[in-house]
Design brief:
80 residues; alpha+beta; 11% strand; globular
């Protein structure tokens, strides 16, 4: 087996309630040694395309291209 890789599967950008621009979030994740992140902004997918610009800095995403990005949004019943 290979070395363990760390990922963050719950990260928010400033397109939701996070603090960082999407590309900056990806850069920070790479600097922290993460292999991948999931952008999980609330009720928007606006940050996903912007996060893609730096995705090649994350080892798990470097060679996977578009298939690693699955835009999705969960709309809570109370927000309808």
């Amino acid at each position: 087996m290979g070395a363990e890789q760390l990922v963050d599967l719950h990260a928010h950008t400033n397109r939701s309630d996070g603090l960082l621009e999407p590309a900056d979030l990806v850069t920070q994740a790479a600097q922290a040694g993460l292999a991948a992140i999931a952008v999980t902004d609330h009720d928007t997918t606006a940050g996903i395309r912007l996060a893609q610009t730096g995705a090649d800095t994350l080892p798990a995403l470097r060679d996977c291209g578009q298939r690693c990005f699955v835009p999705c949004s969960v709309v809570h019943e109370s927000s309808r």
